Each structure stands twice: as structure tokens, then as C-alpha cells.
From TrEMBL, chains A, B:
Residue ranges of domain Gfo/Idh/MocA-like oxidoreductase N-terminal in the record: 6-125
Protein's UniProt name: Gfo/Idh/MocA-like oxidoreductase N-terminal domain-containing protein
Matching Gene3D superfamilies: Dihydrodipicolinate Reductase, domain 2 (3.30.360.10), NAD(P)-binding Rossmann-like Domain (3.40.50.720)
Protein family membership: Belongs to the Gfo/Idh/MocA family.
GO MF term set: nucleotide binding
Domain GFO/IDH/MocA-like oxidoreductase, first and last residues per copy: 148-260
Organism the protein comes from: Clitoria ternatea
Pfam families, per the entry: GFO_IDH_MocA, GFO_IDH_MocA_C3
Length: 360, 360
């Protein structure tokens, strides 16, 4: 790791911060530089057990991380309701921002965060890790192929994981004052991103929540679905849940082919991931089989997707820091589109499942 | 083949009748006995090229098949708009009925067909062939397992095949006076059946068509989707189309596991079919993988699913004919439920995507 390594500060000791700390360690252009928690003891323990170098800074507050002039970028895995405050403050303190999802409670909050990053010349990226897996690029290549996939007609995405009774009582993701979007913000975020990704980030025109969302006693969504439609004939559906066993599917159907993946968010295995495609299939004589048959494609990766995310983010930060580049607009743009769709689905849930127009 | 073999008559020389003729030949308890077409020449050609024995009867009308006292059962692959007339007449002539899907234009027509079968003590079965594949039984066994699948939460089904420009101009499935339900009756039938099957045939309470159905110039549906919901928290979606490349997916998510199949209607290969399951999966330490990983299950079959359908149907017909058994009610019951859901989706499409209550 040369002097050019981007120095990360982490705000808080969330469980997910352990995985991202490892990713920062693994990334060739990033370094674990500081950790801040409201409890200095917790921060010290976290640093000790998550591969922070001996010289890393350990702070007893989030502010202290932001006030450290040697921190280049912060990773923010705080509860969503705290994002607006800490992300904006981080930007004001000139820290590039890797923001855990869901990035905000709504697009109005996100716009304040994005404005703070933009006006300070900072790179923003949300921590949607699977976007950085080389399999994702290979799948996107297939979806972009006019001869083997054609024009997208329909896409269905799922993400669920069966949570424990303890989670259902205590996790921040079921608390209205912490992660008010519940599973829609947590697992639904990935479904919406998957759909946007499959549609080459064309924003749908309409969102409608499906019968019937499940809530906890505090009114937080535990399971829900929605349908999306575009100006043309493309359509999409998704289903996200805390109440079903693990599932992470994308089924994308095009005029000339289709694509399936069953572990798009977190691959079954870290270094080897598969997806399957079918192209220009027809029935064989008498319609007793297919020709050609679907294919399975395997992608190998040395660096896990989380490290590839950190590497990409750090590379953009480095270009700004060392080469006066401008921030890459793709990441805030797709983050905002994801939030716009989430907001529309939430509005549809709140208005009795009426369709909601999505406006940029 | 003993004397007990059920003697089939076929009404019409539809393309699909070629596959079912082969299935009748392959089934150990059935025999190709008669073919009728409005053209005697067509019927003769069909018999000659589809394995009919030399002594098979070849008729220049459908009536003649029904009037042949030695015909036990008829297979009816006529355009849907002709089903009511010919299926009821067949029943009046005491012929057991294997009816191609979509079975009727609406449930009121189907009820007349079912009443004619029932009052004449006849077996009715629709020709939803994949129901009879041993893989289907294996999958159902998994879905019924309280420890490995749990309670169904969500199911998504697809069926599409990319049709030719010729098909889009000329096929009966795009003609309002022949198969007025278009792709909803053709490919949607399978999606709805798959959803009912996954829900152990519990009828949903509500159907709502999704934005936005695609029609041809004559107003026949070429692509559409719908969401279904039950009294409890189960939900389902499907997408059916003539405009996407081949796809036949079921994704069923339960509280403790999930199931995926990608060729449920017609397996990729005739004698070997797979599906995959996942059960009680959790993230590994640091959430960088799954444990346990999903499993692939392979089912081998000597007889193709179409022959197993004919065998099952003939066995039921034989029990009535030779052992005074009563008709098996499962088959008309699930056929009627499928039609009820199709009708509700069609009604929702016709009423501007409003929800439609499904009443038994």
C-alpha cells in the first residue's frame, strides 16, 4: 500500500462495519485509518478485532473522526435516521462518503446529502456491494446484448432473509425511529436497484405496491412487494421480506433471451459466483424439450465484492485528491433513482396501494 | 397393451395433438383408436404420420368420433371457443374428456362442461401436462415439508415463448374469435396453475392485473402480469407473454426454505429434469456467503410427462369403466380454480387494473 492509499474513518461499530473493515484491509488502495463510536471502549475493541493497524486512530465520538484532518473518506453504517445529520456533517468536513443503504429516509433527505457532497467536490457512493462484483458486470454485458438478450420485457427481483425472533424484537431495522422503511429500505433497496440495473437505470414511470404488506406492531414493514412500469412496455415486480428464508433472485426476460441469478446480493461463495442465461431458445420437434438449452456462467474473483467496492470508491477519491478529477456522477445518480422508487413504493403502501407516479 | 387399454379419439389435427398422440402410444394403458378432422384427407395424413395403428378409425368429422361406440375417451385440442360445444357433446355421447387448455373462455362455460361430465359419470382432466412429471411430485413434496420449506410466503411464476411474426399474424392464439384470452389463456394458464399448485390449491381471494398489458390490434392480450393475494399473508405474482424469449420459472419462497425451477412447463430435456432448493440458510460469519448452500435435485423419468398424463387419465377412466369407480374430483376441481383466477385477472385487465374478488 503506497502513500496514495485512501484513509478511511468509520462511524460506529455496526455489524456490517466488520465486513467493510475487512474490505478496506483487502483493497490495495485503501487503509483503515480511524474508528469512532459513542463509546471509546467499543471503538477500541472494534479496532482490535477488525484488523485495524496499530497506529489507527480510535475515537470516542463520530465528530472526532470527522475532525481528523487525515481522514480522506468515511464509511457510514449508522441507522438510517441518523444519515442526514452525519452524512451532511461529514461532507461539510470534506470527507468523501461511502454511505450504507438505505441511504436516507426519503429523497428529500438524500438530496441534502448529495448537495453537501457535490458542493464540497466529494465522491459519494452507496454501499450496494453487489454492484461491484465482476459477475454483475458479466450479467450486465449479457443484458446489453441485442442479439442474445434483446429488449428487456420483464424483471422480477427478490430479497429476503429469515430473521430471528430476537431480530424481530430488537434490530434497528424494525424500529420506526431508526430504520423507518423496514424491509423495504433494507432488502427492498436491493430489489429496486436490481430492477433499475436491469433496465439500464431508466427510471420507471409508475410504482404500485402489491397486496398485502406485512407490518410489525410499530407499523414497520416486514414484507411487501411492488410492481413498476415504464413509458414503454417494460414491467417489473419485486418481493422483499424479513419473514421468508434466504432468497436473492433476479429473473430478467428479454425479447431474445433471459437471465437468472439466485444470490445476487451476497453470492453463495465468496470467490466463485454463477448465473444462467438462455438465448433464442425454441422448442424441439414435438415440443418435448428446448434448443438451445440454458447455460450456466461462472465468474471467479480474487477480491470479494466489498473490497472491489472499496477499491472503486478509493480510486475515484484518489483521482479527486491527487489528480483534481471531478466526482463520478454515476453513483449519486443511481442512488437517487433507487431512493425515488423506494419513496414511490412507500407512498403507494401508505395510500392504499394506489399507483404513484415517479418523478425525477 | 391388454384389452383394458383405453381407446382414445382425437378431435382435430392440431400441432399439439401430435405430441399427445405420441403420449397415447407410449402410455401402457391407452391406445390411439380414432382421429377426426373436418377434412378426411387431413385426418388420414395425421394418422399416418403420428403412429396410429393400421386399424385406427379415420373420420372426416368430429361427430363421427363421438358417435363411434368403441371410443372411450376423447382428447380435445380445438381452439378454445369451440370447447363448450364439442366438450359438452362429447360428454353427452359418454366420452371421457381430456381437454386441452385453456379449457374454456370463462368459468360459466367450464361449468357447463364439468356438469356434462359429472352427470354422465365421466372423468374430466385438463391437459396441463407438467402436473404429471415426477419432478412436479418431488417439488410438491418439498413445498409440503414444514421443516425445509415451511409456510408459503410468496410465489412468482413466468411463462413466455418468443413467437414468430407468422404466429403473431396467424395463430389461433392471437385471434379474438378463437382463443380470446390470448397469452393469458395460453401461457398464463400455466402460471396460474403453478401458483395454485404452490399454494396447495387454496384459491386466492383477490387478483389484480399489473401495469401494463400488451395487446394486438384485435385486442388480444400478448403479454400481461398479475398479483394474487390470499386471506392470510401469502402473495403471488406472474408474468406471461408471447413477446419474450422462452422462460418458465417458479420461485416459491417459504418461511424456512425456497424452491426454484426454470423449465416447469416443458423440461429442457425429456428424461431428466432439475429444480433447486434452499433450506434454513443463514449468512456465514461476516455475511460473505451462505450456509448451507442451495441444492440441485434431478428427477429421471422413462415416460415423458405427456405419457404419464395419459396414463393417469386412462387409469381413472379404466377404474370407472371396469370397476365402477367414481370420477376423480381433483382434476375438475383444480381446473375450475385455475379458470376462476384467469377470469378474475381478465376482469381486472378489463376494469382498468382494479382488484377483483375471486369467488368459488
Amino acid at each position: 500500500m503506497g502513500e496514495e492509499a485512501i484513509r478511511f474513518g468509520i462511524l460506529g461499530c455496526a455489524e456490517i462495519a466488520r465486513k467493510v473493515s475487512r474490505a478496506i484491509s483487502l483493497s490495495p488502495n485503501a487503509t483503515l485509518y480511524a474508528i469512532g463510536s459513542r463509546s471509546l471502549e467499543k471503538a477500541s475493541k472494534f479496532a482490535a478485532s477488525n484488523g485495524f493497524p496499530a497506529h489507527a486512530k480510535v475515537y470516542g465520538s463520530y465528530e472526532a473522526v470527522l475532525d481528523d484532518p487525515d481522514v480522506d473518506a468515511v464509511y457510514v453504517p449508522l441507522p438510517t435516521s441518523l444519515h442526514l445529520h452525519w452524512a451532511v456533517l461529514a461532507a461539510q468536513k470534506k470527507k468523501h462518503l461511502l454511505l450504507e443503504k438505505p441511504v436516507a429516509l426519503n429523497v428529500s433527505e438524500l438530496d441534502q446529502i448529495l448537495e453537501a457532497c457535490e458542493s464540497n467536490g466529494l465522491q459519494y457512493m452507496d454501499a450496494t456491494m453487489w454492484m461491484h462484483h465482476p459477475r454483475t458486470h458479466n450479467m450486465f454485458h449479457f443484458l446489453s446484448d441485442p442479439h442474445h438478450f434483446g429488449r428487456l420485457q420483464s424483471v422480477h427481483a427478490t430479497f429476503s432473509y429469515g430473521v430471528s425472533p430476537y431480530f424481530l424484537e430488537n434490530d434497528i431495522r424494525v424500529k420506526p425511529d431508526l430504520d423507518g422503511l423496514g424491509t423495504l429500505g433494507d432488502t427492498g433497496w436491493y430489489c429496486v436497484r436490481a430492477i433499475l440495473w436491469a433496465a439500464n437505470y431508466e427510471l420507471p414511470k409508475t410504482a404500485r405496491a402489491l397486496d398485502k404488506p406485512t407490518y410489525n406492531e410499530a407499523g414497520v414493514i416486514l414484507a411487501c412487494g411492488a410492481s413498476l412500469s415504464w413509458e414503454d412496455d417494460k414491467v417489473a415486480t419485486f418481493y422483499c421480506s424479513f419473514l421468508s428464508d434466504m432468497a436473492m433472485d433476479i429473473t430478467a426476460m428479454g425479447t431474445k433471451g433471459s437471465l437468472r441469478v439466485h444470490d445476487y446480493v451476497i453470492p453463495n461463495k465468496e470467490k466463485e459466483a454463477t448465473f444462467s442465461t438462455s438465448s433464442n431458445s425454441d422448442f424441439v420437434e414435438l415440443s418435448i424439450g428446448w434448443a438451445p438449452n440454458p447455460c450456466v456462467h461462472t465468474t471467479l474473483t480474487d477480491l470479494p465484492q466489498e473490497a472491489l467496492m472499496v477499491k472503486e470508491f478509493s480510486s475515484l477519491v484518489g483521482a479527486i485528491k491527487f489528480s483534481n478529477s471531478k466526482a463520478e456522477e454515476k453513483w449519486p445518480t443511481i442512488s437517487r433513482k433507487t431512493q425515488l422508487v423506494i419513496d414511490a413504493v412507500k407512498a403507494s403502501i401508505d395510500n392504499g396501494l394506489q399507483p404513484v407516479q415517479i418523478k425525477d
